Predict the 3D structure of the following.
Amino acid sequence: MAKNRDDFTEVTRRKIGQRVGWFCSFPGCRVPTEGATSDHDGRMSIGTASHICAAAPGGPRFDEMMSPEERRSVTNGIWMCRNHGTAIDSPDSMFTTELLRAWKKDAETESRQRVLDGDARPESARTHAAADLRAAAVADVEVFRRTVRWPASSIELALTLDSANESTTTKSLAKAVVSLDDLVLVAPPGMGKTTVLLQVADGMISERAGLPMFVPLADWATEGRDLLASILHRPSFRGISEDRLRAAAAEPGVVLLLDGWNELDIAARQRARVQLASLKAELPNLGLIISTRRQSLDVPIEAMRVDLLPLSYRQQEAIAREINGEPGVRIVDEAWRTPGVRELVSIPLYLKVLLSLPHGSTVPTTKEELLRRFVEAHEAVPEHAEALRTALADLHDRYLRDLAARATSVSAVALSEADARRSIVETGRLLTAEGQVVAPPQPHDALEALVSNHVLLRAGDAPGYSFQHQQFQEWYASHTVEDRIRLADGDPAEMRALQAQILDAPAWEEAILFAVERLARGTDDLLKACARSVLAALEVDPLLAAAWSTGHQMRFGPWSRMTYSAS
């Protein structure tokens, strides 16, 4: 007999339940519908995803104008306990479509409010992973705590869920993340996307709200392993089999925190798409949080959007006090009284950089100047300066610029060991041809010097190289852009090549603006005019470019088809 019902899929059923925190949507009921079995190895459920408009002709509230896709969609479902699910499917005429949609909206609103208020009860009781798996997750978070990726401050960042008017915190999100749908965390550069994911991971561990698995996607991209295999290859997870992890992830509670979707090149994104589609099909209860920039919203999951908010003055003050004590608070106070800087310090990266500058420094007023001053201060530390002079003949800038340009040109953040070595060798050949050096350094020695004494990182089991923050990569790459703009000045052929190779490539967006800002603030009138022509080619208003330099975001003409608005 042919099936004529438009039933929910298991994935849709799960989404309907998650959106109300697995509580019954019947007014006055709100009974929890999911729980663990007595042996802690299974799950019991008294919940059901009921159709608002029936799945088949003859059912309650059937709407013949709806398509099959609409009947089996999340919007046509309401989560009920078994008793109330049976009640609304009875022939009683009081249960109208309008009434059920109102109940659904109220239940979802209450669920969101519980999250915002920090009162959501995590569904971790349903997840009783073995002690060794939990111990591995705890140990893994501790490993990240000892790296430069870990937030310099414990101050919680603020977020909004799905365009809600009210904000919540990373702690509240950590408590509720298991009972929420998949999430995509969206923010401009430097706002603290990695910090949010690590704070959520830490909160999940401390609240026993599930098992977080933090994955820096740029590192994963250089390893050539599947996502789960990459996690299990870490020392913290040695001895844990993939079957064991999959068994735990079959129940709600295991959450992958995937950091830096925008940091993947085209090939790595395609690998990630295939793997995530497979994981969600095999493990529909596996939770996902993916962080990305606003320009890269092509994440391969249906997810609730989370936006990261700028730092308030109170947060800036608390972070400054935690990092630098009362002198740090005075720096923030001065920043708030300096035109242009007030906006900059609402971005966590730039606040941290400002607080790291030598005592008594004048306050930089643009993003470009702030990063430049940070690099200069870092290089001036005697032990760094001596090591860089010995290993790289004081030419570390060239090596870093070329590494940054190589990564940016392929829309990547991390370079594999082989690609990083090739970059070092090619830069050495150029420096030799220019008469700058007689014997270039060995690639391993050069990379080791840059990792130990500069802003380069080596991470991953199969080592990949990246900058401490993508903004550092973009700042170094901007020098290549500046050189190309100088070369194109007055040369139409070079300008066309610049347009095709850099100006029309989304990956170069931030680097272009760093370069244009430097040129526009210089003393060469011809180059200033050239910078203005670049802005014109990008369809960027010069006033907007000035706004960008103090932390605001803008939209570029060539990327208008690919750039998403913040709303």
Notes: Confidence is low (pLDDT under 50) at residues 121-129, 540-567. The chain has 25 helices and 14 strands.
